[in-house]
Amino acid sequence: AQSVTQPDIHITVSEGASLELRCNYSYGATPYLFWYVQSPGQGLQLLLKYFSGDTLVQGIKGFEAEFKRSQSSFNLRKPSVHWSDAAEYFCAVASNFGNEKLTFGTGTRLTIIP
Amino acid sequence: NAGVTQTPKFRVLKTGQSMTLLCAQDMNHEYMYWYRQDPGMGLRLIHYSVGEGTTAKGEVPDGYNVSRLKKQNFLLGLESAAPSQTSVYFCASSYRGVSTDTQYFGPGTRLTVL
Fold first, then answer.
1. A94 touches B at CB < 8 Å
2. Which of A8, A13, B21, B51 has its CA 20 to 30 A from that of B58?
């Protein structure tokens, strides 16, 4: 069964500092990987996704993520955070068997301090 | 273009009452999904539909029913609400399946069962 672990429940960073959010997945084959962002009171918005090819994926709002098969990781990064990046971030994995099961991690809440 | 909309935004039920949550999308998407989000947990798939007139069970289907009579609408029903169904419910849609296409999420419905 596929699963996702986001080890950090809450992260606080200063505005302008760099950010890395961790995501580890468990899946037997090559997974499809996603990062979503959820602002307070809002639905989820897709930041980026990895299906195949280049292991460094660029997304919206200046985010990027790197797929590392050897570490079963798909960490999200941003070189300089803005106050508007404060939100909850979810990593998710899907299988390539067409069973429509998108498995989400428990989320990481990001707080930005001035 | 409203995207994915959900009705109602908030609802309080008493144990044993029934209700229907409505999800509508105007993007001509084939696939539609219902998720629930609980504190400390990622989103979990309740039911989904791969086209008009079809439905399928997700990860946590017990206590819920769904219908997809029209392509643009996906209804989630609770026949006899229980406190364990207190949650935030999200609807999502995509043109094709989760392994090939981006899911677009609605703003959510916050349901409290007393």
1. yes
2. A8
Question: pLDDT of A50-79, one tens digit each?
Answer: 988 889 999 999 999 999 999 999 999 999
Residues 40-59 of B with CB under 8 A from A: 40-45, 48, 50, 56, 58-59
Q: Which of A100, A104, A81, A113 is nearest to A6 (CA)?
A: A104
Residue among B42, B45, B106 whose CB faces A43 most closely: B106
CA A42 to chain centre: 17
Q: Looking at the predicted structure, is the pLDDT value of residue A98 above 70?
A: no
Categorize the per-residue pLDDT at A30 as very low, low, confident or very high, splitting at 50, 70 and 90: confident
Rounded distance, CA A80 to CA A85, Å?
10
